[in-house]
Amino acid sequence: MQPRVTAILVAANGAAHLDRTLDALAAQTRHPENLVVVDVGSTDGSTAGLSFGGSAELLRLPAGRPFGEAVARGEREAPPAVVDEPVDEWLWLLGHDNAPSPTALADLLSAVEIAPSVVVAGPKLVSDDDPSLIRAFGESMTRFGRSIGLVQDELDQGQHDRHTDVLAVAAGGMLVRRSVWTELSGFDPALPDVDAALDFCVRVRLAGHRVAVVPGAKVTTAGPIEEFGRKRVSEARRVRMHRQAQLHRRMTYAPGGLLWLHWLTLVPFAVGRAIGHLVAKHPAAVVPELAAAFAVAFGGGTGRARRNLARTKKLGWAAVEPLRVSWRRVHEHRTTSRDVELARVEDAPIARASFLGDGGIWVVLAAAVLSVVTLYPLLGSPALTGGGLLPLSTTVGQLWQNVGYGWHSLGTGFTGPSDPFAAVLAVLGSIVFWSPSTSVVLVMLVAFPLSALGAWFAVRKVTTRKWVPVIGAALYAIAPALVGAVTTGHLGAVIAHLVLPWLFVAVLEAHRSWAWASGASLLFAVVAASAPSLLPVLLIGWLVALVVGWRRAHRRAFIPVPTAVLFLPLVLAQVARGNVLAVFADPGVPSATRAPSALQLAIGQPLPDWSGWLPATSGLAAVGTWLPIVMAVLAVPIAAAAIGAMLGHRWAVAGSALVVALLGFGTAFAATHVTVTGVGSTTTIVWPGSGLSVYWLAIVVAACIGIDVLPKAAPVTGLVATVLAGVAVAPAFAAFYLGNAAIQPTTGRVLSAYVNAEAQANPDVGTLVVVPQDDGSLAVALERGQGATLDDQSTLDATALRLSESGARLATLAGNLASRSGYDPRPALQELGISFVLLDDAGDDPEAQSVHDRAAGAIGQNALFTSIGETTNGQLFHYEGDVDRTTTGSAAARATHVLYLVVLGVVFGAAALLAVPTAPRRRRATSNVIEAEEPATTFDEERDE
User: Fold this and answer.
1) Can you give 870-887 as a three-state secondary structure string?
2) pTM reported for the whole predicted model
């Protein structure tokens, strides 16, 4: 008979896999006659754009419906065969992550055609990421109903291809005769996830049919069936699913005379097993064990399953006995698993604090809660603006267009190198490619928990007490430099603060392997690009590490290479302009920063407002006198612990940390005396918070070492230091609620909706932005398209020592437009491509208001302009004349841009490949001694030599 196949594809939030699976179906050498896509309540838009006709159709079910119900619905809706000759109908069951190989269906049909007794055929399920890894290839069970995969997570070398007859196959990719599916009523509704396919195949076997696997048919899978359509499945839920499925099948398969005994022992046995889980140190399995027993005992579903089995059963259990897993094989499986666990313990590094068991996870969760409370106004926002922030470009292509040497449309446009930070922004925006600006919001929201996470592992590296890393993580997460950077929009400083602890760990481990050294080089580049003011500290730290680890210097010598490639064009350009210090300018939008005092820097304050205490207590008498004293007192415990570490036996490590702290403080102090960036009519200092991040990390490490070597008073000292540090920075965390935050959520639109609408048709449309200043002058900017973005900002432009010819013409144009004169602006407007003039609001300053009123009157009475009206950004005017299209740079500039991107790709791609470990090495058992105190491991074997 002619086989006729209906493919039933079940999708549940499968945006990451569905397109690939549909493409794989279309590429089959033997296409199915019908296709039914069943969407189970997807909310990720994966099926929103699907539209079928002819032999394909789309069905929708509410969320939460199991895979078996979706297949049953698809089977009912699939059209039956209407032909004159007999047809052998088959159902091909697929999930959204089951992308078949081109010959998968053909191989499955070939297998069932040569073996008519086979009514269920299963493919070889391989990893979605690595097709050479077998995820599942046949299923079976023990005599007590425990399901076992015959092949799991093995490298496919054809070692199992000779085994075809199995008890069961997985649901993904299963080919089943439609008449058998209908006769057996499909999957058991009481098994919504786990073991549904196993139970169905057992009933197929008992009905007198065969089940086989087809080695040549390969189908991908992204995970086990319990993860289908779910973002995450907890271990407790996983245990409950498997145990409940096992107990249900046990009740279903039990002989009628013993059913009552099985039912009576469900709960008592669950209690005993729960106690066994506690003894075996598996407390997470206790509640799922009890819940599964109660659900099977009192949840129903067993009677219906038993009646269905009795109706279709034609053979006895002896027919499937040879296909069950023997006790010997179960014992071998358990022995192998135990050996793997023992090997992990033996090969583990020095015993230190456990992230999950010793408080690491809790301090990160606490920091996450703090982030949600502090940054609540930012939740759900697609972009941020204010301070040093602007939205990113709307596409990934535009992000990468602003990376490297080439034409930049900022202002009147120029050819030159971009800031290295543009590459960091391009990577971040590419991760969230559908909404690049959202990546900036996410960085701000996860800043506190990620800081805690990195500091926990950094402190764990140099301490032995299990609770000390929690203190270090808490102190680093509430660092004044981090809070100040978040609330003022210094994105680069935030990223540098997050990466510094991981760079510390990577540099310490760089002597061990190329993987660590390459990882350190990438982190080094990220920190340097995000906070260029840290370049001197980073280079000094690298040189010291090079000298100290001179025996493995060839690895650490590679660390600054990617950074050098990233910075070289900018350094050469600034040197050619005679402005070397401009290399250290902060990336992003230039924003005015007030310089803190030396005392404020010493206690970690990047701003002169004492972490928000000064404005919060402005109404109190003599606040300027007693506030510095109080803040200094609050910092005493941390300082005492850091200095006291020099009295312990780990004085060398603590002393090194204090030297780094001194370098960080010196960097911050120097930053307050370097003014290279123009902001309006003035200049501003380099953001000192980046240097303070280095300072604070080093102080925290030294303080934790001091706490670690203290006697019984250590816990109290650590708690007091953390609480007092939290009190010192408390008002800064309330900046959004006190109205002190410089950043704010935005829709991602920089200019008005009117300009954005025009920019849709003409992306190069120019808008002259005129901003009245408090000193009576005007700040002028030229923005293209929908407005300036964060990734097209350039320190090369912000640190320019003199106006370019086109910049001078722009200033002349703005000055004459803002005053009544006989100047004809039409040639300049046409040449510069300016169609709009935006007069920004003046604020409350009288001089700025006077300038604003004069400019508004002059532009408003100019017949060349039409007033659009007030917008959220200011007063908008439209120039009615024709303007020229702006240049996009020469062909040489475009070629240089592509060449530079290729060089970056080669260098950073090589570093990334080296950073991925290719072969694990066994590590000898060691005592609980930190690595700095261990003898040299001159004769240790390393596989990457």
Assistant:
1) EECCEEEEEECCCCCCCC
2) 0.61
